[in-house]
Specification:
Layout: H1 2-6, H2 10-30, E1 34-41, E2 50-60, H3 77-81, E3 92-105, E4 122-134, E5 138-149, H4 155-166, E6 181-196, E7 200-211, E8 214-227, E9 230-231, E10 248-249, E11 256-271, H5 272-275, H6 284-288, E12 296-307, E13 311-320, E14 339-347
Antiparallel strand pairs: 1-2, 1-14, 2-3, 3-4, 4-5, 5-6, 6-7, 7-8, 8-11, 9-10, 11-12, 12-13, 13-14
């Protein structure tokens, strides 16, 4: 073997050296955590009530070969995830941490008086920890959320500062927001592909949430079109409204550009942003609200994505059916809850 190597030309040796460097760089690059920052706003799609603004910072771990190798707190989120996630060869495991804030307002934010025929003022600050087991064909996920809703989360200050900077209407009704209340939520998700070719793939998705922020069940069909990586498309929702996860398997040196479309139906049993406080008594909006809400909702989520191993950008637009009846004197001028999320991710 040594003699054969000695006979190689200088050119061959350079090619071998470059190949070794590429393999080493690829292995190193796959071991980098992924950071994502996102901003969501409803004004982008011409809406200005219900969910109005949000931002989150997210960190996803490296791909691991087992749940034990993924990060996390064994006694809490990871311990519960181990009861849900499958453990077998051929699956990757990844953990994701997210911290963020969501704001919701009624349509007429210039009014100081409480508005009982529109959604309440809500400021939520939350932290989620999710674990997923997945490959290019299937995904199982579990997530915990710890959070807080109320004036201690500084929603009024955040929105007032943003509106001062942009010259938008000063929100005057934050004295009527939901009361301070701790949040605890659990989420599970299962999805699998049923079609996959060179230019598109399709998957079904089932997920559910249980807690005093959202209690719901969802079913969806997910489609990706174009040059896409292995795994599943990112759907960066406002924190706490669904699972946060990163289910892509990226090849080094490849730039992916593709679109996604998700058709989703949601059955809501409880949603704090429209039902009010669950654990606190005496909140004026919760006690006296006059919304005629709907428990079955439809949603179309359109996505545009560009990804490489080192950075990516995503735009997701959420278009929904009406979440409440707009009659009977309702102030819900836009009863649908439409918004868009722009997110950017990178590795160090």
């Amino acid at each position: 073997m040594k003699n054969e190597l000695m006979k190689l030309s200088v050119g061959h040796k350079i090619v071998i050296l470059i190949g070794v460097c590429i393999v080493s760089t690829s292995a190193f690059a796959q071991d980098k955590p992924i950071w994502r920052v996102a901003w969501a706003n409803d004004e982008i799609v011409g809406s200005d009530n219900q969910f109005t603004n949000g931002a989150f910072l997210q960190k996803s771990s490296i791909l691991a070969d087992s749940l034990e190798q993924a990060g996390g707190t064994p006694a809490f989120g990871k311990g519960l995830a181990s009861l849900v996630l499958p453990k077998r060869a051929g699956l990757f495991y990844r953990e994701t941490w997210t911290v963020g804030q969501n704001l919701q307002t009624p349509d007429r934010i210039s009014e100081r008086d409480i508005i009982l025929t529109d959604v309440p003022y809500v400021s939520m600050l939350g932290w989620t920890n999710s674990h997923i087991a997945f490959n290019d064909q299937e995904l199982t996920g579990f997530q915990t959320l710890l959070g807080w809703v109320g004036d201690l989360t500084l929603g009024e200050e955040t929105q007032s500062l943003a509106h001062d900077i942009t010259g938008a209407t000063d929100p005057k009704g934050w004295d009527n927001q939901l009361d301070n209340e701790p949040l605890l939520n659990l989420y599970v998700m299962r999805k699998a592909k049923f079609y996959n070719n060179d230019w598109m793939d399709a998957a079904w998705n089932l997920d559910a949430a249980l807690g005093n922020f959202f209690t719901l069940g969802q079913a969806a069909l997910e489609f990706r079109f174009g040059n896409r990586p292995a795994g599943f498309a990112p759907v960066g929702t406002p924190i706490g409204r669904s699972m946060d996860y990163n289910a892509r398997i990226l090849d080094p040196g490849v730039g992916y550009f593709y679109t996604s479309a998700i058709v989703r139906g949601t059955g809501l049993l409880f949603a704090l942003p429209r039902d009010g406080n669950l654990l606190r008594d005496g909140n004026d909006w919760t006690d006296d609200e006059q919304l005629d809400t709907k428990n079955l909702l439809g949603q179309l989520i359109l996505g545009l994505h560009y990804e490489t191993l080192n950075w990516g950008a995503h735009l997701n637009v959420f278009l929904a059916t009406d979440s409440a009846e707009a009659n009977n004197g309702s102030n819900l001028e836009d009863p649908s809850n439409n918004f868009a999320i722009l997110s950017v991710e990178w590795t160090f």
